[in-house]
Amino acid sequence: MASTTRQTTAARKRAAAKPVAGSDPLADFEPIRIAADADVEEERVPLFYIGDDAYTIPKKIAPGVALQYLRQARESGHELATPPLLIRVLGEDAYMALEQSKAVEEDQLERIVKLIVDLALGQAEKKEGKARG
Question: Residues with Cβ < 8 Å from 68, sequence gap 6 or more?
């Protein structure tokens, strides 16, 4: 009985056929250059105040933040993925200020969390071409 793993000469030639000119997507490809993090200035805007202290978030949340959140949500669920997202966007000090605040109300906290999740995922939705309304 002949081996099924062997290819005939004709089959190998068909498999090794050269692509049609212009069909190679990497033929004219140039590597994508991404700035080093040290070269990016992050503009921040106030999100909330506790007393007179302002706590800020980036005006533009990097798409990598959404990727990290989505990976963690897939692995552990959205509830466990949200705190690392908040810490990454707010920063440790602002997160701790919210966590330790005796005055923050549930609806205020919900608005802050929802806004951060929406902003982080909104960056990903734009890249996928979804309409924003």
Answer: 84, 85, 88
Q: Is the distance from CB of 85 to CB of 94 less than 8 angstroms?
A: no
pLDDT tens, per residue, the chain with 133 residues = 555 555 565 555 555 555 555 678 888 889 999 889 888 888 999 999 999 999 999 999 999 999 999 999 999 999 999 999 999 999 999 999 999 999 999 999 999 999 999 999 985 455 445 544 4
How far from 23 is each of 12, 13, 26, 28, 104, CA to CA, in Å?
A: 21, 19, 9, 11, 58
